[in-house]
Every structure is written in structure tokens, then in C-alpha cells.
Amino acid sequence: MAHRRTFSARFPDMRNVSLDSPPLTPIPNIANLPMPSSRKPRSYWLRTTFLALFVLVAVSIYVLLVSPPVLRPISFLDAERIRPDDAARPSRWTPEAFRLAALKQRKPKATASSSNPRPQITLNQTQELAAVSSFIASLSQNMLPSSIDPSLPIDPQLVLDFDTRGPHAQEELQAVIHDVWARNPVMLYSKVHSPVSREIKQVLADLYLRPAPTIVDVDQRPDESVLVPLLFRLTATKELPILLVAGQTVGSAKEIRYLAAKGELQRLITDAGGVVDGARKKKAKKL
């Protein structure tokens, strides 16, 4: 039995549908549908604006009234006072400028006795020489500020790392003096490009000292213009090299050679705590 194909009422023949006839599925009217609103209400923007203004005012009050010392820059004009007529004026961005500026920014804590501050200790020439030598020998980067007048006593705060107005300042000063000459019983201030300095270095090298002599080549330091006249004032000498044994000046280069030849230099070094021939390498015993 053959099956007869027919069009159902649900799927009419599309060939007989006219273009002017209404659509089979009605198109919904989207104009009548509720649309979600994307704009915030006016009260929301008012609250946001008020909150932003409040935060801005709070931050401004904190910056202006609470933390002005933190935001205040370090003044390098006070750290380096140099005459305007000085043609060789160094840069203000130097380690010595930072050190002086930090010292000026340091303020002592308020105490009950702040109304009557303790006076700062004063250094005699022997103490000043020990303080300067300790400052130089402790760290090779330590430099004397160019604003120092070498003809006047140096400010103890520049070369000492403790409170020079404290109740135990004198005891700490004596400890510094003892420590610097115990660690550096032989100290030589010399020049690299000097035949006399090279000769004295060779005299010390031939002694094989332990600890090794501390040699400061003054002409290789940026603070040479301050350090040289300062050493001349503190040691009462007029030329380099300057040999110090236990903080005492040995004498001129001629006197150093004479003392070394007589054995007196070795005795002075031994009394200062150094060991002559202490760094000489011992030969291995032959078996």
C-alpha cells in the first residue's frame, strides 16, 4: 500500500503563502517592555563626592599638621659653609655633607635636666690626634669635612661616635684613645709620590711587624687640604711622613732611620704592643 504525502494543518504549504499575509508568529512589542536603568540616582553621586572631599581634607591635614618634620628636606647649605670666593668649591652631594646635615638634624631627647644642658667635652692636642686617627683608621671612607678650619680645635662630634655631652663622655673618650693605639701601635701618615715616604715604608716593612703598620697615604684622600695642616698642628711637624708609635711622634725621616739602625725604634714598637718579626714567615724544617 503506497503512502500518500499530504501537508498537515500545522505546517501549511509555504508556496501558497502571500507576502502580504500576516506573519505566522506575532512579533512582540519591545517598546512596552520594562528597560533597566543604567544611571545612578542623584543621591549616590552626592554621597560619593562628599566621601572623596572628606578623604582629601583628611590627607591634607595629616600632611600639613602631623608630619612636617618627615617631609622637610635636609639642608645642605648649613652642612657645608664655604666662602663665596672659594673657587674650588666641592659638590654639596658628598658623604661629608650628608654626615654634617644628619648631625644638625639630630635633636637630643627632652629630659628633666634639659633646661641646664651638660657642656661638651673639649679635646687637647693628644686627645684630638687620637680621635682623628681613630676616625680615619676605623673606616677608609671616613673623610674630614672641607668646612673644618684646621688651625682651630676640631668639633668632637665630627670624629667621635658617642654623645660628647653625656655623663660618661670622658670615660668613653679614654676608651677610644686606648683602643686606637692598641689596634694601631704603629701608624704612618705619608705620601705615595714621595721618595722619603717610600723609604720609611721600607724601613717598617723590614721589621715584619704584627699587627701590620697602619699607613695613610694623605695625597690619595679627598680631605688632603684639611688633614695635612691639621696633622702639622697636632704633631708640631712641618712635613710628611709622620710616624706615630703609641700615639707619639717619632721624629723626622732622618731620626727614624737613625733609631732603626740603633734598635731604638724596635724597642719603642715593642713597648707599644707591636711584635717585631711577628709577621716573618718561618722556614719549614728539613727532615
Fold and architecture overview:
Helix 5 (125-138) runs antiparallel to helix 9. The radius of gyration is 43 Å and the shape is elongated. It has 287 residues and is mainly alpha-helical. It has 11 helices and 4 strands; from the N terminus they run αααααααβαβαββαα. Helices cover 41% and strands 5% of the residues. A 4-stranded mixed beta sheet has the order 2-1-3-4, with helices on one face. Helix 8 (195-205) links the parallel strand 1 (186-190) and strand 2. The longest helix has 25 residues, at 42-66. The protein has helices at residues 42-66, 68-71, 76-79, 95-105, 125-138, 156-159, 169-183, 195-205, 224-235, 253-262, 264-271, and strands at residues 186-190, 214-217, 242-245, 248-249.
